[in-house]
Amino acid sequence: MLAVSLIGVSIVRLRVWNPNQASFAPPKTEKAEVTGETRVQHRTIWANPVLWREICTRAYGRRMVLVKLVYYAIAVFVAWSLWSSSHTGELLLGVVSPAGIGFVGLGLLSLLLVNAQGVTSITTEKDTKTLELLLVTDISAKEFVFGKLTGVLFNTKELIVIPLALIGWQLAIGDVSAENSVYVLFSFLALVCFAAMLGLHAGFSFDNSRASIANSLGTMFFLFIGIVIFMVLLVEARSSFFLQFQSFLVFILVGSIGLYASLTHRNPSVALTLAAGGLPFLTFYAIT
């Protein structure tokens, strides 16, 4: 039986294992107009080769495809849950609607994945020893950074569109107003750009891939958890806000120190220092 099974599998897989005639076909050629010389025709590369590699090639293998499939499954589950509870009208914790929880969950997951993609786009170049080769080419720093940033946004476009499609669905059925939808749209897109740029920054700042990913995702997690805790404290202390102002001030100072330690780990910068010191206060102002 074992021999018969092996023979059957070999027959079925013969076409896969045995390459066809097209595999041995000569490459396409083109003829030069001036010299008449025949040359092999290669793929056309864009003016920015970094952007071309990020968009037109599978630069990160099949891992991104698997991640997207898992994300699709989670998004389908969230949509089914919202459809099932669309007629109840109950608020979770008495404050947030199920649609709001679904958007926040998908949005946070999307931001973390965009951030991880940004880190991977740089650490992959370091791990494969190709970053040094790019530095000695004619590619400018502007082309490299914006090529990587655009490639990150392109490769994660589905992760960006799905949460926005959820908001569009809630707008269509009347659960969200048009004004709030616009606020959520621009806020989410701003956070997407921040997550992608933070990933690139962490990739440049650390030589070790694990350290880069841990620092970048840790910073994102720290910001999200910090803002959630801050909003919960603000809601709880709304009746005596000024009495709790000292606690909020300590919370803001801790956030500034944490951002400063994360962003300026190896690249001290006046701009990053100002950002680390000002962002918590601006967040406090925006929330209140």
Task: Write structural notes for this entry.
This protein is an all-alpha fold and 288 residues long. It has two domains: 48-205; 210-288. It has helices at 2-12, 14-17, 49-56, 63-84, 98-127, 131-135, 141-155, 157-172, 178-205, 209-236, 245-263, 270-287, and strands at residues 29-31, 38-40. The model has no long low-confidence stretch (mean pLDDT 81).
Task: Offer a few descriptive terms.
mainly alpha; two-stranded antiparallel ribbon; 2 domains; single chain; about 70% helix; about 290 residues
What is the element layout, followed by pairings?
Blueprint: H1 2-12, H2 14-17, E1 29-31, E2 38-40, H3 49-56, H4 63-84, H5 98-127, H6 131-135, H7 141-155, H8 157-172, H9 178-205, H10 209-236, H11 245-263, H12 270-287
Antiparallel strand pairs: 1-2
Helix pairs in contact: 3-7, 4-5, 4-8, 5-7, 5-8, 5-9, 5-10, 7-9, 8-9, 9-10, 10-11, 11-12
